[in-house]
Amino acid sequence: MKIVIAGGSGFIGKALTNTLLKKGHEVVILSRKEKKTNGKISYVKWLGSNDFPENEIVHADAFINLAGVSINEGRWTAQHQKEIYVSRMTATDELLRILCVLPTKPSVLVNASAIGIYPVSNTAVYTEKSKEIATDFLAKTVHDWEKKAAQIEAEGVRVAFVRFGVVLGNGGGALPLMVLPYRLFVGGTVGSGEQWMSWVHVQDVARAIAFAVEKPALSGPINVTSPFPMRMKSFGKTIGLVLHRPHWFPVPSILMKLALGQKSALVLKGQHVLPEVLTNNGFEFLFPTLDLALEDLLKRNE
Known about the structure:
Elements: E1 2-6, H1 11-22, E2 26-31, E3 41-45, E4 62-65, H2 78-101, E5 108-114, E6 125-126, H3 137-149, E7 158-164, E8 166-168, H4 175-183, E9 196-197, E10 199-201, H5 202-214, E11 220-224, E12 230-231, H6 232-243, H7 253-260, H8 265-268, E13 272-273, H9 276-280, H10 290-299
Parallel strand pairs: 1-2, 1-4, 2-3, 4-5, 5-7, 6-13, 7-11, 8-10
Antiparallel strand pairs: 9-12
């Protein structure tokens, strides 16, 4: 298939591009910068006042939207939160404009999302059937992002929302920051330790997105998390075991809040989320358990 990716140069986008190429697909990356075609990857400039990417995309089988300012970078000041929100809305508006003017519509739009749409809880278990929606900044961003992307359904395009958990990888995301204290022999439980960590290996994220593209029956929310989430205390202990480092230095919630501000909620609070749609449709995780994921990611760097 010919697959167009918005946000293809980011942490998840790079992993996704590699996965799609290995599966034999042709990839078009929407980029703010001029780049030359490289093998089966071509680049089309977009989001500039004089950019009309629809003129260069003659036909595409699928669009994938990962575009937006990373939630993992920078402190969540009011300005940064605005950039996170506005970047997603702006990019999706432009993507919808492109899709609407294309004479031949793609069969599917896979739009990035996040499990942050679900309320924080130490007891609830969330699947795609869960209707509860949180009211904080991240949940509002995710809800509005999904609602906007869903507008293209009126044009006959199937839409799937891939709700990412905490994505683990070496090229970005939360893992490098979480691992650093253990490498320095000061790793330990963050906050109460009872909060849930619904995590997923970046390779499984890329494979799940490709799965959503290739399976015509999939639409609506798709939780992209490991089938075996863990509480933070166990998560930290597993990092220590894999790295052969002690797990003993507790990190009080107040220190995380001082260091990260509102973004501390990403590690101090969590949700128990299960990937029911993926597992019910036959998706097989390469790294279903945390020890397998960490062995792959951390041992590779030693």
